[in-house]
């Protein structure tokens, strides 16, 4: 018997393979039999004390995250345990949000929202459009490709950057040469040692005047203090679905910085998530029980 724990009930997951026992657990003290769990799906909304949980799961073989990024759990994964990401689950929702923030920022939607609140009718403002602009996607993986599909038709130029070189995709080493021509820079990289503060004072200085920085990755990919300097000068604008720190304190200067639009890390949390995460969990459980290769392995063995 393989014991699987997820935050979902049996009705949500549907029939699982023979020989699988499923237990629902969302948060709080772990119920009995923690030492028998072989495959664990942590909660998406409530981060547990991973170190304490792993210490009790002595039979654990696989952790299936529900997020595309696994930086929060990676440091605590015990030796011999496989960690899998939810790559693909959030592609559509995150790409939608990235496109929304790009368009809202370029077309200055926050200005119109403020003016609607005061009943102000103003037609003097002339801002940029997305058409004829250059969009630099830094981290052109599955979400980057999904974003590119959604921007197709807006008559903008897409420039792709990824860690691994391939046809039509630049490498990270080429960023200094690409930044000065970009009107919009969208960050979609995972948080690693090499990407922490990737966007520092030098990176920001390389961006053209009036350019828009969109962070859909993780807050610490951007040096917040360096960004605040550029925002304060009015030289750059930013749209941030993730911040550092996070949650963003009510008195943090990012809230009131000129030219910035903040959303509270909500890009992936839409109704589109449920059917996709259900399909992923079911598929992974079936693969695990059958001894087949697992999907989206970040750490450990794929089988």
Explain what you see.
The chain is of the alpha/beta class and 303 residues long. The protein folds into two domains: 117 residues, 3-Layer(aba) Sandwich (Rossmann fold); 172 residues, NAD(P)-binding Rossmann-like Domain (Rossmann fold). The protein has nine helices and 13 strands. The strands form two sheets. The protein has a seven-stranded parallel beta sheet. A six-stranded mixed beta sheet has the order 2-1-3-4-5-13, covered by helices on one side. Helix 2 links the parallel strand 3 and strand 4. Helix 3 crosses helix 5. The longest helix is centred in the C-terminal third of the chain and has 18 residues.
List the helices and strands and how they pair.
Layout: E1 2-6, H1 10-13, E2 20-24, E3 37-40, H2 50-56, E4 62-64, E5 82-84, H3 91-106, H4 109-118, E6 134-138, H5 142-151, E7 157-162, E8 170-171, H6 175-178, E9 184-187, H7 201-206, E10 212-215, H8 224-233, E11 237-240, E12 260-262, H9 273-290, E13 297-299
Parallel strand pairs: 1-2, 1-3, 3-4, 4-5, 6-7, 6-9, 7-8, 9-10, 10-11, 11-12
Antiparallel strand pairs: 5-13
Helix pairs in contact: 3-5
């Amino acid at each position: 018997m393989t014991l699987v724990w997820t935050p979902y009930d049996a009705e949500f997951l549907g029939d699982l393979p023979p020989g699988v026992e499923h237990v629902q657990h969302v948060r709080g003290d772990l119920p009995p039999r923690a030492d028998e769990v072989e495959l664990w799906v942590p909660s998406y909304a409530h981060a547990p004390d991973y170190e304490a949980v792993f210490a009790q799961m002595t039979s654990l073989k696989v952790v299936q995250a529900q997020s595309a990024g696994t930086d929060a759990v990676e440091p605590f994964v015990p030796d011999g345990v496989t960690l899998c990401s939810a790559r693909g689950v959030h592609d559509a929702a995150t790409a939608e949000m990235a496109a929304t923030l790009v368009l809202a920022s370029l077309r200055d939607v926050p200005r119109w929202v403020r003016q609607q609140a005061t009943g102000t009718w103003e037609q003097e403002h002339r801002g940029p459009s997305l058409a004829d602009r250059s969009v630099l996607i830094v981290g052109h993986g599955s979400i980057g490709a999904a974003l590119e599909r959604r921007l197709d038709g807006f008559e903008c130029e897409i420039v792709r950057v990824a860690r691994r070189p391939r046809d039509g995709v630049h490498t990270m080493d080429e960023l200094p040469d690409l930044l000065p021509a970009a009107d919009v820079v969208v960050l979609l990289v995972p948080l690693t040692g090499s990407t922490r503060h990737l966007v520092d004072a030098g990176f920001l200085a390389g961006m053209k005047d009036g350019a828009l920085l969109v962070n859909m990755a993780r807050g610490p990919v951007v040096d917040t203090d360096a960004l605040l300097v550029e925002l304060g000068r009015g030289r750059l604008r930013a749209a941030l679905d993730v911040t550092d720190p996070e949650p963003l304190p009510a008195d943090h200067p990012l809230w009131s910085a000129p030219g910035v639009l903040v959303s509270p890390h909500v890009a992936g949390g839409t109704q589109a998530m449920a059917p996709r995460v259900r399909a992923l969990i079911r598929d992974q459980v079936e693969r695990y029980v059958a001894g087949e290769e697992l999907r989206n392995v970040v750490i450990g063995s794929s089988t």
